[in-house]
């Protein structure tokens, strides 16, 4: 197996709200960030809903 060396300041596991927010703030602060998400979409358990379904 090939040994790939990852050079990044921060690795974030999970692209839910917490992971996305952390990645955003870290990148804004100048850090290099790699984010890994296991599912096909970002956002985690949060799902957008039509406004009328909430009211
Ligand atoms: C059942 C449930 C339903 C909810 N529905 C809503 C909603 O409809 N609307 C709303 O606004 N809020 C909703 N919430 C609240 C909302 O989910 C949370 O406030 C918010 O999503 C938490 O964000 P988080 O990043 O901490 O975790 P999560 O949203 O759980 O994100 C974690 C992420 O990490 C990923 N992950 C986990 N393990 C790995 C791994 N080994 N490798 C790579 N990626 C990994 C997951 O796939 C996921 O994307 C719900 C909460 C629950 C428990």
Automatic annotation (TrEMBL):
Which Gene3D superfamilies does this UniProt record tie to the protein? FAD/NAD(P)-binding domain (3.50.50.60)
| A Pfam entry, by short name | NAD_binding_8
InterPro entries, alphabetized: FAD/NAD-bd_sf, Zeta_carotene_desat/Oxidored
Q: State the Gene Ontology terms under molecular function.
A: oxidoreductase activity
Query: Which keywords describe this protein according to UniProt?
Result: Membrane, Transmembrane, Transmembrane helix
Mark the transmembrane ranges. Answer: 6-27
The record's section on PANTHER family has: PROTOPORPHYRINOGEN OXIDASE (PTHR42923)
Mind telling me what this protein is named? FAD dependent oxidoreductase domain-containing protein
Q: Which organism is it from?
A: Dictyobacter vulcani
- Organism ancestry: Bacteria, Bacillati, Chloroflexota, Ktedonobacteria, Ktedonobacterales
């Amino acid at each position: 197996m090939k040994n790939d060396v990852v050079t990044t300041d921060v690795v974030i596991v999970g692209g839910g709200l917490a992971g996305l927010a952390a990645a955003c703030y870290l990148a804004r602060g100048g850090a290099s960030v790699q984010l890994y998400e296991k599912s096909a979409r970002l956002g985690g358990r949060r799902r957008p809903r039509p406004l009328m379904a909430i009211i």
